[in-house]
Amino acid sequence: MTHELKAIVFDVFGTVVDWRGSIAADLGAWGARHGLVRDWAALADDWRARYQPQMERVRSGAIGWTVLDALHRQALDELLPLHGLQQLGEEERRYINRVWHRLNPWSDVREGLWRLKQRHVIGTLSNGNVALLVNMAKQAGLPWDVVFSAESFQAYKPLPETYLGAARMLDLAPDELMLCAAHNDDLAAARAQGLRTAFVARPTEYGPHQRKDLAPAQAWDVVAADFIELADRLGA
């Protein structure tokens, strides 16, 4: 028996917000105010490259539960000397680390989310911690009904606890919940737990030379060009 779709949760980094472009623009403006000229997009790329390896330390049990803000800060402290920024003090490092709280959405996101919200419960299902996701939503005007984070379950995607935990907390069967993501591996993990799936490509997430997640890798339940088409496809 297939249930009616009741709720949609969204991967955030890359799917909802343009992390690379946002970081480059934000830190570029900050650097200009402080007389610092750097390749901020390269810093963003190097930072993001440490994302999965750091979370894997938590997933594997090598270290205890650690929120993403703290993992980001550990990676940042390692990266700054590589970008000639080892002289930065605590206040400056904290400002830079919190750039992840200030990311901007892709151009189709707000309209698409507001339409989807009229018919479905909408929320995040992100590896970002709760404070990060709430601050981002306030700044970016993202109209979530609920914020689910890896922190909610103390488990980073793609561990099953994240997908099943969101369904459980909404009192839904897994197939009453859909994950929307720009990443095929995230969708595969959600589908394995019984969730419905929607793929929205973000072909410039990793910059002009992106090579992965340019197209759906499986026959996902919905494939859409953007959140507006996703709303169209779901009758919102």
From TrEMBL:
The keyword Hydrolase applies. Belongs to the HAD-like hydrolase superfamily. S-2-haloalkanoic acid dehalogenase family. NCBIfam families: HAD-SF-IA-v2, HAD_type_II. Catalyzes the hydrolytic dehalogenation of small (S)-2-haloalkanoic acids to yield the corresponding (R)-2-hydroxyalkanoic acids. Gene3D superfamilies: HAD superfamily/HAD-like (3.40.50.1000), Putative phosphatase, domain 2 (1.10.150.240). The keyword Hydrolase applies. This is (S)-2-haloacid dehalogenase. It catalyses: an (S)-2-haloacid + H2O = a (2R)-2-hydroxycarboxylate + a halide anion + H(+).
